[in-house]
């Protein structure tokens, strides 16, 4: 298993970072996904494992 964390000042910026990661890593299985919003930023943590490529 691996973990990656993304932080951004805006939700739009966070969406961009997460979507880029998912497009670059199509062969992963997401185990847990956490989303948090603070007063000055927002963040996402993704726990995942790499799957076998077909």
Describe the structure.
There is one protein chain. By secondary structure, this protein is α+β, with helices and mostly antiparallel strands. It has one domain (2-50). Helix content is 26%, strand content 48%. The chain has one helix at 11-24; strands at 2-8, 28-37, 42-50. The protein has a three-stranded antiparallel beta sheet. It is elongated, with a radius of gyration of 12 Å. The chain starts with a strand and ends with a strand. The mean pLDDT is 95.
Q: Provide the residue-averaged pLDDT.
A: 95
Strand content: over 45%
Return the structural class. alpha+beta
Shape: elongated
Rg estimate, integer Å: 12 Å
Strand order of the largest sheet: 1-3-2
Overall number of structural domains: 1
N-to-C terminal Cα separation, in Å?
Answer: 20 Å
Helicity range of the residues?
25-40%
Counted by DSSP, the helix tally is: 1
What kind of sheet is the major sheet? 3 strands, antiparallel
Order of helices and strands: EHEE
Number of strands: 3
Could you list the spans in which at least 5 consecutive residues all have pLDDT below 50?
A: none
Please tag this protein with its features:
1 helix, 54 residues, three-stranded antiparallel beta sheet, 3 strands, alpha+beta
Would you summarize the structure shown here?
With 54 residues, the protein is α+β, with helices and mostly antiparallel strands. It contains 1 helix and 3 strands; from the N terminus they run E-H-E-E.
